């Protein structure tokens, strides 16, 4: 389904005027295009539907030939065809198209028209077709639906009410209606309908719908009882075990939750819902990043899971380096010397602040000068543009950050290092303006982190041990904080996505943390705690350092939290439950 055909955004009144003019001239095709455009701008405006009716009357087959369904069909044309199908006595087919439009643009009130909300519709389509429509709406809607989008679903809730009035004891209808009511905030109604459905026709799904409704109403004990009855109906549905475990965990009963999910894994160790929930709960229990790494491995090895899950992103959200950058640590005026023979110290360049600009002394950019020499060139305009588009202080989880940075893969090495030596200005966006006005150093941090992630995609055909990407990142990591930590994060991200490099990266991080031990760098300690395969002693050191310096740089961290609340990237969440 397409947004439009020619990029126009005419007001509905102008679209209607053009449609009527085309109608008067007998040009039905152009009239149809303008009616479709008017429907997108004002889907419930009576004048639009009057013009559509005129168009149908002037056509040989009620106007359906003017709105054919193709591979990419304008959403306005889909909605127009839905209304014409209903007028032609085929309302069930029309409903299917309206639901498709709702899935495409959930904030528009596509169904808020008399023929959908009429009590007669429920009688004409029957309970089974009503169930199908409500299920489609629930599948298309988030759970819960944002308050601003709820009015657009009001017509479907009216359809549910009308259908229940006609079929008051239809258990499946009551359950699906409850699911929709819960999503749009009608929790009391959802509980009432689900309870009626269970009484009318006891079933696993009925108990699940009732459990979800009770949980949304804050009646946790009753919700758990309903979900346990669902297990009694079908002990092999491990998704319900995961629901029970998640509910218990959400209410502080983590040990019970782990028991339920472990029981599910005994039945099927590879069931995706149970695996995702298990790793999330284990991480909540002991904070060991190993569980999240194992979950990332499972996701990589099982690309065809039954549906997408959000457990990994949920666990990483708000955690330093797992889901967001940390504020830059204080840096000495010059880089600490790297180990003998290391890449960072092999060029013989003695960088000065004039090499990379006045920001070098506070951002660690002098380490970059060592890598690129005293005549580092600024990045190309295209490199700066790409960087501005993707740089953000948060990401769903390390593998997602790696995937996002692929847009920098075609930049050459000079451009990537140029981005570090000459950070682009902040973008002219809301995020950029906040960063510029509040703390520009966080933008520099974003540039460093995402550029180093881009370096991970440089010459990926080269074997890791002798690759350019490893050599450059290791060299940068052996400098001072700032760029060094960004480079280390890129190396850690490589370990998340490629198990074969984990031992190498864990050793690099351990060496860096041990060298910085006396300064107890908080950010570096958190980075170590995000590293796959880190040895126990280094993990213990990282925990100690993170605890010792857990209250430093409060102002920067508070600002970062505000930024993440304001500009958190939109993430794909888990699919809605039944």
Automatic annotation (TrEMBL):
A UniProt-annotated Pfam family: TPR_19
Residues of the signal peptide: none
Gene3D superfamilies for the chain: Tetratricopeptide repeat domain
InterPro entries referenced in this protein's UniProt entry, alphabetically: TPR-like_helical_dom_sf
Ranges of biased composition (kind: Low complexity): 332-348
Highest taxon of the lineage: Bacteria
Annotated region (Disordered), positions in chain: 323-360
Stated name of the protein: Tetratricopeptide repeat protein
